[in-house]
Design goal:
By secondary structure, the protein is mostly helical. The chain has one domain. Strands 1-3-2 form a three-stranded mixed sheet. A hairpin with a 4-residue loop joins strand 2 and strand 3. The longest helix has 38 residues. The protein is elongated.
């Protein structure tokens, strides 16, 4: 498994998509960050308005460190926005803030896939941490039980990515709709917001594809499609 050409061959599509997606995110963000919104509100204000219009009370909005480190914490009902989004008045700031507010709305509405994702997160975290060690140990000791235990553990990461993908797309859909309905962006501005959110969505697609191809690699090396290749 060390320096295995097959690993890089199988993962090449996912790695290429991830690199392209990262470039798209940065490019779309820079473009939208240079365009001030006509409404003049900040990202934090936009998130507050979106939550208010959606009748989703009790969500705290606070700044956090790091560029594009924006996220929503369901258990604590806290929406954390990076400095550029929290204080920014650009279309990029509004789009990202509204996207995270979309997750808060999902949480309040008990959106089924978000509920499932939240249940999977701790399992996937443990599975991801154990999988590589188990698989490596299995190959070193030539013990199939360890290899398959590692594959099963890694499968939880794949399941998480598959569930997470529609959750992110739905949050972006809610964000764009909320921004338009509240008058925070015009239909013309929505096209720029769309570029930012679609670019961000590509990163989730890339992560899902990469995790699926990694699982495929493990299955091939474990002999799931023929004789095992030690």
């Amino acid at each position: 498994m060390f320096f295995d050409p097959l690993y890089f061959l199988l993962l090449a599509p996912g790695l290429a998509l991830a690199a392209w997606a990262q470039w798209r995110v940065q490019s779309a963000y820079r473009e939208a960050d240079a365009i001030p919104s006509q409404s003049g509100v900040s990202g934090a204000q936009a998130a507050q308005i979106v939550l208010h219009e959606a009748r989703t009370p009790g969500v705290e909005i606070e700044p956090t460190e790091g560029m594009l480190s924006d996220h929503y914490v369901p258990g604590e009902k806290i929406l954390r926005l990076s400095p550029g989004v929290y204080q920014g008045h650009s279309l990029a700031a509004l789009g990202i803030a509204a996207h995270e507010a979309g997750h808060a709305i999902q949480d309040a509405r008990r959106y089924p896939l978000l509920v499932v994702r939240n249940l999977i997160v701790p399992i996937a975290n443990v599975g991801s941490g154990l999988s590589w060690g188990l698989i490596l140990l299995g190959f070193i000791l030539s013990m199939g039980a360890f290899i398959w235990a590692g594959i099963i553990a890694f499968s939880t990461t794949v399941v998480f990515q598959l569930v997470n993908l529609p959750v992110e797309f739905d949050a972006s859909r809610r964000a764009r709709l909320a921004l338009l309905e509240s008058g925070l962006v015009s239909p013309e501005e929505d096209q720029t917001v769309k570029k930012v959110l679609n670019a961000a969505a590509l990163t989730y697609v890339a992560a899902t594809l990469t995790s699926m191809l990694t699982l495929l690699y493990f299955l091939v090396r474990a002999g799931a499609f023929g004789g095992r290749d030690d």
